[in-house]
Amino acid sequence: MSRIDFYHLQKQTLDEVLPKLLMKSYSSGKKAVVKIGTEERLEQINSYLWTFQDESFLPHGSKKDGFAEQQPIWLTTQDDNPNAAEFLFLTEGATATPDKTTEYERIFNIFDGNAESKARELWKEYKNAGFEVFYWQQDDNGKWQQKA
Questions:
Q1: Which DSSP string do the residues of 48-83 spell out, in sequence order?
Q2: pLDDT band with cut points at 50, 70 and 90 for residue 73
Q3: pLDDT tens by residue, 103-112
Q4: What is the mean pLDDT of the chain?
Q5: Can you give the residue ranges of every domain in the chain?
Q6: CB 36 within 8 A of CB 75
């Protein structure tokens, strides 16, 4: 059964957190799908991942780029997994039903205060479906701390 981690953004933005988490997953050799709430935001994140650091970039693509099966990180607004990813990142209020999450080893639900109520609903839904769920908050220094 998939592990589901809820990351509550309080000290940093998605643009600051997402690349770091994707770098960790990419360096582990795992493929990722990033499901984003809107096409407009998908395009912004797509551009940002190429330029967020001067000395490196994250190889990724979207429907616009094609070659999904070759992309280590796939950006989408749909419930697709064309690169056979092990990790699913849910951002900008995007969701996935428990039946869609079973194809992933790990799900990262990254949300801010605007999507907090939706995250709570998902937490209950996943918990009731028998998934392992974990909640993470940032401390005053921006480090992630698991909360009970």
A1: HHHHSSSS-----EETTT--GGG-SEEEESSS--TT
A2: very high
A3: 899 999 999 9
A4: 92
A5: 3-147
A6: yes
Which letter, b or e, does each residue of 52-71 get, where b requires 16 or more Cβ atoms within 10 Å of its Cβ?
beeeeebebbbeeeeebeeb
**What does each C-alpha distance from 130 to 7, 94, 99, 111 come to in angstroms?**
19, 21, 12, 22
Beta-carbon contacts of residue 15 (< 8 Å; ≥ 6 apart): 45, 48, 52
Q: Which residues of 99-134 are buried (b: 16+ CB within 10 A; e: fewer)?
A: ebbeebebbbbbbbeebeeebeebbeebeebebebe
CB contact set of 18 (below 8 Å; sequence gap of 6+): 34, 45, 89, 91, 110
Is 21 strand, coil or helix? helix
Topology at the third CATH level for domain 3-147: Rossmann fold (3.40.50)
Distance CA 5, CA 19 (A): 16
Q: Which helix (H) or strand (E) holds 8?
A: strand 3-8
Q: Is there a contact between 128 and 27 (Cβ–Cβ < 8 Å)? A: no
Q: Is the pLDDT confidence value at 55 over 90? A: no
